[in-house]
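Retry 2 of 3 after timeout on previous attempt. Resubmitting structure tokens to design endpoint.
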């Protein structure tokens, strides 16, 4: 009960500070897609790197609705996901739960090898709530969740790629990208698929690929390997009109926002 009260206070502060207007009765989630044949495979062992750092995310709102998605640890107490997993116009959050390495292939007692945590604070960009169009929201469709329990001490973290390393867009489109997440309708299996990162969108902040992804995988990392290490180069978000799945590229703005709250 104490955690729910805390949520009511914190989320109102995050959403309404700075005279942010809330849009009512409006869908915030685009369609993700399987492109051609579904080439995704189930991750059998979610306790190895990088899958141990990726988790099943469930947000319960005060109107009784739920959003099920994906997030990934970028700090001991910090999860990165998409804003549309934790924000819904016209209502507020009642509870958020995060389960790193969740594996529905296991028996009940073993499904959560690293435990779980309540999310106690959410940070989203004001621009996401204020945006007048879906296209504008895509630019701000990312969120940081602060956890009550330091799950990252058990799992480790996923490093952010993109602008801040030598691993930048000059090499991104020479490599495959791996989308990992928990699609709905699959009993919460963790799935992955690897395909080439095709291009950047015309606005310069979405990485496009023909790798498959559907609802529920939103908020999962789009991974690439650089010098033997996994980096998240983007956050999987939505399906675009260009016929490819897309992720929010880790630009300097995204990187700075995450680092501001990462613990």
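Retry 2 succeeded. Sequence:
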């Amino acid at each position: 009960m104490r955690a729910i009260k805390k949520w009511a206070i914190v989320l109102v502060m995050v959403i309404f500070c700075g005279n942010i207007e809330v849009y009512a009765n409006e869908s915030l989630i685009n369609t993700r897609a399987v492109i051609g044949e579904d080439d995704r495979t189930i991750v059998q062992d979610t306790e190895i790197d990088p899958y141990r750092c990726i988790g099943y995310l469930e947000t319960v709102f005060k109107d009784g609705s739920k959003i099920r998605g994906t997030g990934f640890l970028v700090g001991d107490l910090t999860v990165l996901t998409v804003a549309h997993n934790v924000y819904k116009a016209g209502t507020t959050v009642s509870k958020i739960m995060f389960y790193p390495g969740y594996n529905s292939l296991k028996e009940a007692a073993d499904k959560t090898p690293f435990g779980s945590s309540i999310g106690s604070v959410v940070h989203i960009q004001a621009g996401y709530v204020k945006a007048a169009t879906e296209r504008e929201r895509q630019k701000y469709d990312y969120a940081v969740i602060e956890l009550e329990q330091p799950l990252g001490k058990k799992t480790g973290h996923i490093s952010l790629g993109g602008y801040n390393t030598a691993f930048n867009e000059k090499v991104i489109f020479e490599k495959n990208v791996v989308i990992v997440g928990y699609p709905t309708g699959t009993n919460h299996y963790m799935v992955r698929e690897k395909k080439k990162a095709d291009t950047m969108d015309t606005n310069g902040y979405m990485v496009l690929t023909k790798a498959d992804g559907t609802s529920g995988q939103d908020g999962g990392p789009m991974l690439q390997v650089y010098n033997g290490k996994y980096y998240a180069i983007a956050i999987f978000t939505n399906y675009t009109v260009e016929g490819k799945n897309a992720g929010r590229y880790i630009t300097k703005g995204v990187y700075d926002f995450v680092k501001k709250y990462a613990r």
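Attempt log closed. Residues 1-37 have pLDDT under 50 and may be disordered.
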